[in-house]
Every structure is written in structure tokens, then in C-alpha cells.
Amino acid sequence: MSVGRRRVRSLPSTRKSSPAHHKIKNERERRRIRQVNEAFDKLRARVPSYRESAKRVSKLRILEGAIQYIRNLCSQLDPSKEAKTIKKTKGYK
């Protein structure tokens, strides 16, 4: 006897492919993408190296900048842990 989630029966294909369903699904995805982009904009505003940049900065660069900024803050709080922190988080990619 297996324990876990029950499979949810899918809707008939005629309902899944209706234009109304696609419209709802697309709007939900656009809203999700908008929220992700807004979150990246907020993060970018807090990373000093990209705060004043007029150029578009990739999401990857924003994340890398945030990681570096956090590392710098950690090393300022406790300089003796700087080497350990860098070794632990070096392979973040």
C-alpha cells in the first residue's frame, strides 16, 4: 500500500484547450512573470553596485551581485569567518 498524494483526474481535452482556459492560463503566467520581475527590481535597488546603473542588468548578474554584497556584509560583521564563508559559498552557480 503506497502512501502519498492521490492523482488528480485531468479535465477532458475539450475543456483544457478552450480559448477561455488559455486566456486565464496566459494571464496567470503574465502575472507571475510580472511579480518575479518586480522582485528582481527590488533586489537590484538594494545591491550597491547596480543601484544607480541606467543599463539593464541581467537577473543572473543581480543574483551574483546580491551574493557578493551579502558576503561582504558577513565579512564586516565577523572578519574571522570571511575565509570559511567564501569557501562554503564559492560554488553557488
TrEMBL record:
Gene Ontology BP terms: developmental process
SUPFAM superfamilies listed in its UniProt record: HLH, helix-loop-helix DNA-binding domain (SSF47459)
InterPro entries xrefs: bHLH_dom, E-box_TF_Regulators, HLH_DNA-bd_sf
Protein name, as recorded: BHLH domain-containing protein
SMART domains: HLH
PANTHER family the UniProt entry points to: BASIC HELIX-LOOP-HELIX TRANSCRIPTION FACTOR, TWIST, BHLH DOMAIN-CONTAINING PROTEIN
Alphabetic keyword roster: DNA-binding
Coiled coil: none
UniProt keyword annotation of Transport present: no
